[in-house]
Each structure stands twice: as C-alpha cells, then as structure tokens.
Task: structure prediction
Amino acid sequence: MVELLAPAGTLAMVEAAVAGGANAIYVGPRGWSRRRDRYELSDEDVRAAVGIAHGGGAKLRVAFNTNMQSHEIAPMLRKMERFVAWGVDGAIMTDVGAIAEVHRQFPQLTIHASIGANILNNEDVLFYRSIGVSQVVADTKLTLKELASRKEQIPVGIEILIHANKCYTYLGKCWMSPYHRLERGTDPFGKDLFKGSPNRGGLDYRVCLESWELYSGEQMWEKSVALKNDAFFLLEDIPHLIDLGVHCLKVQGREYPVPLVERMVRFYRDLIDVYTAFPKESPFEVGPWRARLAAIQAERDTARSDGTRALLAEARQPVGAFRG
Amino acid sequence: MRQFELNTVIANLRDLRESDLSDYDGVYLGDIYCRIYEANFLEQPGDLKEGLHILRDQGKRAYVTTYAAPRNDFLPGVRRMLEVSAAAGAEAVEVHNLGIVKIAHDEFPELPLHIGGFANVYTAAGVEVLRGFGAVRFTPNYELSLDEINEITAACGAPMELLVHGKMPLGISDYCFLLDYEEKWGVKCPDLCQKELFLKQGDWAMKSVGKGILSGKDVCMLEHMPRLLAEGHRHFRIETVSESPAYRGEVAAVYRAALDRAGAGDGEVDEAWWETVRRHARIGLCNGFYFGRSGMDYAGIRPESIGSLLTISRAES
Result:
C-alpha cells in the first residue's frame, strides 16, 4: 500500500494531517530543515508530534535536511538521539557527511534522502544507498520512465512529491536567493540561521519569480522573462505512480494554512483509497476529481501569490547585521 | 612547478586554441551545463583527446570536468568521456554529481577526482565520505564563508579549490529558456547562449548561459589573496567558461602577478590590475559568500570597486 506523507509546520497541522488520513507526517526541528523557523517545531513539540502521529496510527519523520556546517554535526547527533529515543520513525537528510554519521550511530533508523540531495540518476541512488539511505525523494523534473527504471533496477524506496513547487533550477543546486540577500543570525539556542538560503535552512526569497528584463549588452531584448517556478498538484499521474509501486506520495506545504493542508491530505487520501479499491480491469476516470482539486488549487494559488509578493519585498530590505 | 595553482575552464577546442593560457597552471575541459553547447568537449571524444594533448604540450595540468546535473540518459556519454580521460592521461576529473563519483570510483579507479561546486560539500564529514570514493580535492559549495571553509580544512586537511574570480554559478536547470526566443531574436542554438545575456531587475543582475544561471557581478578576491595564501589555500579558479579569450588571458595575468607578489609577502594591488578586472566586469564586483554576506556584496578596502547597475551606467554615460 502506498504511503501518503503529509507536512506539518505546527502541532495543529500534525493533528490535521492525521485527521486527513496521512500515513506519515514530517516535521522540521527549529533551525534544521528547509523552511523558515516559524514553520518548524521546538524539540518538545517534536516529542508531542510523535505522540499525536502514533496515536493516530501514523509515522513521524524529522527533517534534518539543511546543508549544515561541520561543527553542527555533533549537536545534530545529540538532537537525533533524543528524537530516536522519543520514537521518531525516520530522518530526512541531505548532507552526505551527516547521513553517514547518523547511519553509523543509528543503524536501525530509516534515512530518507531529501529533495535537497537532488538525486537525478540511478547511480546517484546507488551512491546514497551505499552510505545508509533507504528511501529517496525523486526530483520533480524526473519522468515516469526514469522513475520506472529506478524502480526496476534498484531496491530503494521511492518518494514522489505530489504537491510541491517545480523550480526553474534543480532544487538543492540553486543559491540565487542568498546571492541577492543573506542574513545570518543565531537563534536563542545557538543554532546558526541563514535567512535567504533554503539549502541552509533559511527561507527562499523566490527571486526567480521576479519579472526579469533580459539584456544583451546595453540592449533590452525582453521586458519580462519568467524563470518558471510553478506549484503543482499531481492528479492524472497518481494511478500510474501507484501501479508503478512507488512507496510514498508526499505532500509539501508546511507554510500553508492548516485547513488547506488538511483538505489537500484528505483529497489525496480519498483518491488513493478509491483508486486502490477500484477493479483493475476497469478504466479509472480522474475527471470527477478535477473539480475538487481545482477548488483546493485556487486557495493554494492565492496563498502562494501572497507569500511570493511578501518574500520579494523582504528580499529588497537591507540586511541589518552582518556577521563575518 | 609553481607554488600555487591557477586554473580555469574551457568548453571547446576553438576557445582552447584562441586562449592565452600562459598564466594558468591547469585547465578543466568541458561545459558542465549543456550537452548541446557548441562543440562541448564532453560530447566530442576526439576533441577532448586533442584538448588534453594541447594542454600537456603547453606544460599545463590537464583536467576534465563533468556535467553538473546528469540524468540517466547522460550516463553512457559520461562513461565514454571518463574512458577517454583515463586513456589520454587526464590528471584529474572534476565531478559535481555523486552518481558520477560512484561510476568513476567503481570503473575508473585510476582517475583522481576533484569535487566540483555543485556537489554540495558543506562539511568535513562530507569530505571524508567523498575521500572514500577517490576524491582528492574539493571545491566547497559556493555558499560557504572562508571561516566555514577553513573549519573543514582544519578538521580534515583536505585541499580546497576556491573560485577567486569570475561569475559564480548560482543554479542549473534542465530547461533552457533562451530556446523560447530563438525565432523572435533570430539567433539559434548553439549561438544563443554565447551572447552576453543578463537578467536584470533594479540593481539585481544575473548572467544567463541558458541552462546555467551565474552571478551578474564578477566574484573578485584580488585584494584578499594574501589572506587566502596565509590560510593555506593553494588552488584557485578563475571561472571563465562563459567569457572571452581576452577575459581569460588578461584576468589570469592579473591574478598571476598578484599571487607572485602575495607569495613574496607583499599584498599591494596595482592600480592597473583594478582597471583590468573592472573593465571586464560588466556589472561590477562582489565577493560571493566568502565573508558571510549576501553573495552580491563586496567587502574590502576598495568599496569603489563594488559597482552596480547604477554606478556602471553612470560611468558609461
């Protein structure tokens, strides 16, 4: 049975995801995941999230998927030790050194290679498997053919983003945002923060979505060039992905309102359940699901547009305090 | 052999032949962004072999780079290129993708690996993992500050290669948006991405090379070379894959002179050196992330070197 994985940026969202029918939920410990801190949880809230998830029959994963600094590996391991003792079911990670250390210290813990690891080809998968990864998140640009090849050739869990952004650049291989604005700071617990760098756990200013003018020398060739960065929901592909045998369908969106996330999760829960119970010999029509998804998408689009406008405005603000 | 290595990247045989490489110690051959970049060494085994011979004949360290974001269908070509590199005596191969690291380690163990900037080396622990796969030199992720880079070297002693001048890679895509405009502009691929194309908005600017996005400003560490040497760094890159042979040669001459002087304990920067790097930087200069700031910022004793769209256009008017 394919697993439905839901995001949670707050404890209320953990509860909503469980109520919506998620099989698993992921959260980010504050300062350690690819979202700004307001969508991350304190350690005590991670502990509470484990209780809520397990109480509802779901798993709880923690995302330590920043590209951390060398000296942060030791505190990360201490934090992981607490989380493992509290019963987390897996860790989502990016840095190969951090992955190797976690696998060495917690060999029973399931390690998921994050979307930030940007695993593009089958040899990439074999590399990550060799250092202890057992599930990988597929890049959003991969085709069904590439996923099928991966599934056929490598015994590894495959996770597919079914609601996420498809950036212009490959995720994890982009630092356009901090090039324009990076604000370094430290949280009350001593964790370094990198506001502007999504790879390092800060927010992404989405500068790709600026209306860029294109110049050749002094001559303007285009007044407005879009570097495409679209948020998407998968619908037509869901039956194919289930048939292909992917292990996990993942909804992103810790930054969205709780009721919206719950509706997303419930939509996919219903779709997965209906499809898997559907007789295989009959054609499955996704048409009737389209209208329901369209309403969710409209709400998501509004929330995302508001968010992008705010981020681009924030990106133009001078950085307050530099740290060398 | 010189004490410090200054190297660069060249995408095809034509650029290699037209470039004055006298101030470089090593050259990486290949364009990491696009398979259909004009006569990309990485798609032309014969050219790659000839390029490696040319470099060796000039007494240069002959390196080969590899694609930054290879999908499954790239891999047969990558294997062919690694085979040519090994047979033609490349001194090392630069790798940005961990799948290619594994291929090189398993199938071409005689090839030393230099880990490229897109491989996301952020930690000493990551360096140790990659050393286990045959890596001998590392370009840290461009987002790291000098303090963070030095933290890695202090922990594991790994030799680093630092981008000291040129346009810093900011991202790579599977999609070339320039192709949408071929008909409108009357310029076709592969000529399209060889135009000097800048995305601008206000005082923001990035250079487009099609699938690759680079910094608009040129990273410039000219006045900071004494610090880099004092901190033990010995391998320096001038990023010129999207630049003219004139840029490649003249900027290298400046850095060679600066390295020689800094190596002798003198950190002074000649006025003529500034003039050269400013003339070649269309948008201005920055330090990337080396000082823990936004990548487009400049820190140093020459604030007038910063440049911006505003100051450049004022100067030109």
